[in-house]
Structures are given as C-alpha cells and as structure tokens.
C-alpha cells in the first residue's frame, strides 16, 4: 500500500509541477477574468442597445381626466409587479378623424405603438396586433376596471410586521442557497475536470507511458494524475476565491451575508462545499480520465469533449431535481447515483440540517471514485496496452 | 540448457528472470508463441531476432507492462513483475521523456518511479551526467538535447536507482558508433557490479560481442536458448584450403559437400580433425599453400537456427 501511495505521489508531484509551474497556468488563473471582461463589455453594449430600443406602448386616445385615472391604476399595478412587468401607456388627445388618428398611431415608430385604446373608460376598444387572450389585453382590462372605481380618499396601508424569517420564506431562500451552491459546484467542476480528458495524451505521445507502466501500477498512475489535477484546481480556486473575496470586500459591505443561512450552518456548508467539490471532481475526473485514456490523439480528445460536456449537463439537470424536495424519490435517486451525488448532497446541506446522510454519501462517493479508477486502469491495460488474455466471451457464448 | 528444465528444476536465486510458455495474442495474431527463457543472475543475455519476431512483446510481458495471454514469468523471484519494479531498470524501444523536463530532473524522476528518493536521484543524476560528458546539459530541457543525448539521458534514468536487473529493448538503435561503444562499456560495467542485463537486438554483432547467453526468437518462438558458444557449436568449423596443384586424384580425399570458391577448397571440418585429410593430400602430391580453419560466427549459427529469411532480415541493419 505504501508503495502504491508513493508511486501515486511521484506521478502527482510531476504532473502538479508540470501544470502549476508552466506559463500556461497563468492563463488558467486568469481564465475567470475573461468572462467577467466580456460580460461587462457585452453587458454594456446590450444595455446601450436596450436603452436605444424603445419598448412598444399602448396609445390611449382619451380625455386627460380619464387617462389620469388609468395612469393612477397603472401606478398601483406597478407597485405590485414592477415597472417592467406592466404595459406602458401614452396619452393622445382625441382628434376629429378618429379612424385616421388610429391608423397614424399604429404606423408610428416614435414611440412604437403596439395597439391603440379608444372609447374612454365607458366604451373601451383595443385595436392593434394583439390577440384577445394576450396578457397585455388582460392587463388593460384590469387597469380599466381599477380606473372605473372611484378612488377612496384615505385608504389605509396594509400594516406589516417584518420578521427575519418564516417557514415559507426559509424554504424558499434555502432553495436559492442550494441552487447557488449546486450551480457553483457544477460550473467549477465542468471548467476544471474537463482537463483530465487529455491527461494521458502527453505520456502516450511522448512514449513515456512505457517507462511509467513498467515502474508503477497503472492504478497508481491514474490516482496520481487525478490528485495532481485536483491539487492544481485547488490552487486555481484559492486564487480565484481570494481575489473574489477581495473584490466583494471592496464593492459590498455584506457580501454572502445577504444569502440565507444554510440548514447545516455556514461553516458546515462551506466544509461540505469543499468536500463535495473534491468528490465531484474526483468522480467526474476519474470518469474523464478513463474516457480520455482511450484517446490516442488530441483530435480524439476534442471529439470526445462535446458528448462529455452534454453528459455533465444531464447529470447537473438530474441533480437540480433535488432542490426544494430533498427527500423525494428523485432526489434520493440523484443522491445515490454516484456522478450526481455530490451536487445533490450539497443542495441537501442547504435545505436539511442532518449530518449523517452526508457522512454516508461521502463514503459512498469515495467508494465509487476507487471503483471508477480501478475500472479505468483495467480498461487502459486491456485496450491501450493490450494486456492480459483475450476475452472472447461472445464466441464462448455462441459455443454454449 | 533449456529454459523448461531451468524453471522447473533449479534454485530460484540462480535466475534473475524466467518465463515458461509465454503466449501473447493480439486479436487473431499470435505475436509470441510459447516463449520460455531463463536469464542467469549476473549475466548479459541477448534476445536476438529480426524485426517483428516478438522480442519487444516478450520483454514487455517479462517485466509486466502487459500480461500474457497465457504462461508464467518470474522476475527476481517474484511472480508479479511489478513487485520487483524497484530493482528493475527498463529502457523501452520507443524512447520517451517529458520534453519540458530538465535532463537532471528526468533522471531523478525515473529513479523516483522506481522508489529512489528525489534528492538522491538528483545527486546521482549530476554524477552520471558528468561521467557521460553531459554535465553542462543537466539543467537544460530535454527538448533542447540532441537525439543521442536524450537517449543517453534515458539510459542513465534506467540505471540511476542501481537496479539488479536491467532490461534494454534495442538499446543500440539510433546511436552512432561512439555511443554504441560507450553503451557496450556501460553494460559491461553494470554486470561487473552484479547486475543482470537482458537486451534485445536485431544486430548480431552486439549480441556476439556482449552476451554470454542468447535466445534466438523467430516468428514468436524461441528457436535457440543457450550460450553463444553452444549456438556456434551447432555448426562445424569451416576449412579453407589452397593446394599447390590445381587438381589430381587426391581430390577424392575431400569430404562430401566440399565446394570450390576461387582457388580455395571449402568444406566442413571432419569430425576426426584435419590431420588425416592433410596427410592424404600431401601423400597424393596436392601440396598445401594455405590453410584456414574458421570457427562459425553467431551469424552462421543464426542462419542455421532461424533460417535464411530471418537472417536476411537481420542483415538489413548492420552495426554502425
């Protein structure tokens, strides 16, 4: 066992050094900067475009008094739903040729008019490119009903006693924490573990695989490579989280404190996030290493990347079904399925306070890491090194 | 002495490496077909055969890179070769090093793979590189070294942990005459310190110069396994004789199979020795101008054992 660990360590030390001490690792560390830069760049462009592009409006041809009542009703609805959710109204005075005015407004681009409301509060009629059951029409119906009702001079505001949390709000907010944690885990793993697909290409193309395979067990080589990349990823994460914390500290006073407290507490949740990231990385990484080991060229690795990414997304999708219902059959299945287990269990940590399921899950996941690595090493020996006796099971089956 | 007898009947410690009936199939192709060899401890043992004979596959099975389809092997007394890895050095046919690694680090890494502490590996790497006139290249990346230098670095990495068994697959391939000479000296030096060396080659001259024992492999089978002298002894010595008279009744004294090559009579040395024939020739008035008795070389033995076709393949590449 000591020899196995020592062999793994030799491989891991070489791979870790070769990765972290290379110039390419600087680009790796800078990787999160690029999406942020592009995000802010394209976000700014998008905002400018959005600002330039005016939202379609409903032109209201009516008296000023009626329009004011309609506008007051709109204000009420805006308070409840938000400005963006409520249809925008623009007032136009009634002209002698009503039909011509409607046609002119519908053809207008400043502002772009979606429909024209005529007939006042008494006999309203909507004309435009709009279906009867369109939500815009339904909103207008609601606004007209409210506007027709005479406003009460001193309607009391609803008294509100604000508490820190209630059962309903806690479940909802913890689901948000679960979702954020799970998404973070997924994004980090998808970004980092994909590198393992090409981990054996260097050894195969340099022919050094013969030297390694003669000196150490293939299992030890797999374990060494996996942990080396995990360690390199942890270096990246430490740098990113450190930089992120500094930025959050500089820009916000409250930071993650604005998130609701997870069910296992912040310390427990953070510890589990670290453990489950490790497990998720090792599980998916072991699978990727196994798949990638079958490839003999960089092109084959590239070809494999897309289905592997889709596979990861499917696993993520499966894990998200657990959010909000951690004891549902789907959630339990996702927790048992090894590849989705870490993400599912992290979501559970945000929503449920018990610790024993986590201890069980971590043991289960560790077992699967070992199993996948063992399988990967055997597959590598069999299919790449062409080792061992030929297994013609199909021929044997035919004879029987 | 055949390997079967060695494997079944001898003390384990006498042989650094043994195999019994190794078979390797790749798909429907049988690459190695029942190879049994026994490499005595402390010897230089050659695996001789043309390209594609199954030498590399045999070596890879012997040291445990691949498992055989059937058969057994024992390396330094262990059934599982990987358990003896710390005491084995292996130089593969297709050389491979990490191009970005420094020469010194590459040697130390190869030692570390075999259990040598990294610091000690670096210290020995410095010594070895100095010894082989590569001291100035110790901290240069492998990619900046010439092919010959990189091969030397890999060879030094193969022996840095002072293995008891050194397995070299076509170690002379790609080396110039000077480096081939150095490598031969290095192999001899390692055996003087008690190591066993097993190497494969398709160049007979190397095996002839270095090996005490050889296994001749052809078409995946061992055609001969034993001492080089035993291989030669399979053939009679060749006599080249030039008579003063060109012909005469004395001619009937030559043994069957005698042929004429220019002015020379060429025939196998009779089992009774040359004296009776010489006496008959002198009595018959042939006169003797020159006489040469040539001991057969390993190449002749190889032709006799493996056949002309295999020998022709071996002849395609001469030692530089």
Describe this structure in words.
The complex is a heterodimer of chains A (400) and B (320). By secondary structure, chain A is mainly alpha-helical. Helices cover 67% and strands 5% of the residues of chain A. In chain A, helix 7 packs antiparallel against helix 14 and helix 10 crosses helix 11. The radius of gyration of chain A is 31 Å and the shape is elongated. The mean pLDDT of chain A is 80. Chain B folds into two domains: 230 residues, Rossmann fold (3-Layer(aba) Sandwich), CATH 3.40.50; 59 residues, no CATH class. Chain B has a six-stranded mixed sheet with strand order 6-7-8-4-9-10, sandwiched between helices. In chain B, strands 1, 2, 3 and 5 form a four-stranded antiparallel sheet that branches. Chain B has a four-stranded antiparallel sheet with strand order 12-13-11-14, with helices on one face. In chain B, strand 12 and strand 13 form a beta hairpin. In chain B, helix 3 crosses helix 4. Chain B is elongated, with a radius of gyration of 24 Å. Chains A and B meet through helix 1, helix 8 and helix 9 of A and helix 3 of B.
